[in-house]
Structures
1.
Amino acid sequence: EPPAQGPLGRFVLIGTRVVSWPLVGLIADGLAAAAVSLIAVIAIAVWRSTAGSGDERTAARWLGLGLAWTALALTFAAPSLAVVVRGLPNDHYHAFADPMVFVLIGIGAAALWRAGPAGSGGLAAPAGVATPGRVIAIAGMLALVAWAATHLPPAVNPDGGFPAAVAAAERIEAGAGPGPIRLLSLPDFKSVEAYAYPLVRGGRNLQMGEGVGEATLGPNGTAASEPERLVVICDSLFESVIGAPCGGPAEATIVPPGLGDPVDRFEAAPGRVISIYRAGSP
């Protein structure tokens, strides 16, 4: 947990995520690659901040400072970033720093390309000459391309995407029947719109509840005030927060007495359990 890591531990991990994310993706998918990315970007920032001149030196200093400030600010403003949870994207919280990383990489590659061979007295390398700097720059760019090419996301999201949501909505309609539906999410801070949207597209009228984790879907364009059907969407990724596993125990914490067992329960997507209850069902 973040408090147990201490500020320094969180700063190192969050800083690594900030720098490595635009280059190699999620830190959990390639810790070694993330560490190499961090070292490379820090080395470029320090090198061009001291060896560069004019605008290049100024840019390298401000970009390096910007990345350091981003990591420091997120260490205290968003300490949860120090915990990597697969399936729970949160790198968008620091995506604003991606351009800083890209520009620093570009500055470093350009400096390597210009660098003359040893003993050249700092003169720029002539065109067409394969200097050590150019070899390193090309190798670095090819390494980034190779990593990206071998870590492409699947063509279809593992959760089935929108077609899977539509199929789940159709099954909800079949199980709940034509009456009004009360839609609840577990945990309650997670929105119900992933399945409310295809139900609305199917003709139901949406009436949001007090929180994002609840809504009422009325039939034939009218929303009822007292739904007779209850649909609970449980996300197993948050079972530790809910305090019980999906598939029965978690749902029992919010289902009103008297509804009995669900008339249908199915996994709409990996880790996404939907339970349908109807008043008067056994």
Note: The radius of gyration is 26 Å.
2.
Amino acid sequence: MYRSGFEFRRHFSHGLFPLFGITRREWLLSAGCISLAACARRVGSGFNGYALVATSGEHSVAIADLSNFRLLREVPLGGSPVSIRAGIESNYVLTPSTGSVHAIGPELKCTASRKLSDELCAIDLARGVNRLFTLAAAGQLIEVDPRTLAPKHRWKLAAEPAGLAVAADGSVAVSNRKTGSIEFFRAGDAQPARTNLGGAIGEIAFRKDGKLLLVANYHEQAITALDIPSLQVVAHLPLAMQPENFCFNSDGGQLFVTGPGMDGIAIAFPYLPFEIEQTVLAGRDPGAMACSENPAYLLVASASGSDVFILNIEDRKVLGIVEVGQKPSFITVTPDSQYALVLNESSGDMAVIRIPSIQQRLGNPATMRGKSAAALFTMLPVGSKPVHAVVIPKPA
């Protein structure tokens, strides 16, 4: 009757709850218990922490215990969350349509909510200096008090904002993606620096040392590097694909780029010599990415498919492909590099890949049959349209 577990789960979750007299939320919680029982039979001790998952279709954040891969609870927010940032004392969630920022404290409950504008479009945090920023669609950069969520300062922007990047020292870059304008704000400066790249741009990101701003230059299909704080162009690297997704490796010394136009990954060095080292094939329609530190692997989700492509960063060798779920749109890795968590936006679950199993299978040619270099560890239902997540350790 059902060709796959994913097909059954979709049918069940959308049409059969009333027949069993349970709600979808109750089913998710019970399914988490089933996943726990399954995990008890598998190798792996879990990570001593939690995953906070923004489930935009549920208007909530799902809390998963990663020590036993069990869904603990859902934290309702009253709006669709799209982004979470892990802070020092709290974790911060953005619900753009309500114009609000929410704080989830160590007790894993919503401790504060604050409406800052009619609509917000981005949030970011300089964790080292504990400075929290958000963008109002009406044209404001807002610094938010991390404890009270009250606005500390508002800056009027020259153009409608879309992209936000915050450096480790609390410096901020804001972009308008349609026109290519960028504004740079730094503490102590009377006026922001401004520049315009003359056409559509995408993601912006600071290099780890904060001395360059890297821009996904759509209209020239390139990475453009801007000097900080002058915003002068210092490098321009043409690409074989539209630079839609950025991902740095653990030390920030390599930048991986994916996007429409090629089923591949561009590998760039953001330090001297600033260059595209090579472009490698990466499955079908590569999209969201994440890196583990040890071993140094790059995991790449298929934007329109159901699998994750795995590349060894050190030797650029392809390790394999893991089937995960429908439309994997976000990946994060636990701090100990033991588990990769893949959010499947269409199937409403989180796939867990146990990274050490990749190494074990590489050492045994008999296990390398087929296209997968790693077995899927478990699947955990988390709610409708999971789009973003952070991993936090349990309090000592």
Note: The CA atoms of residues 19 and 153 lie 52 Å apart.
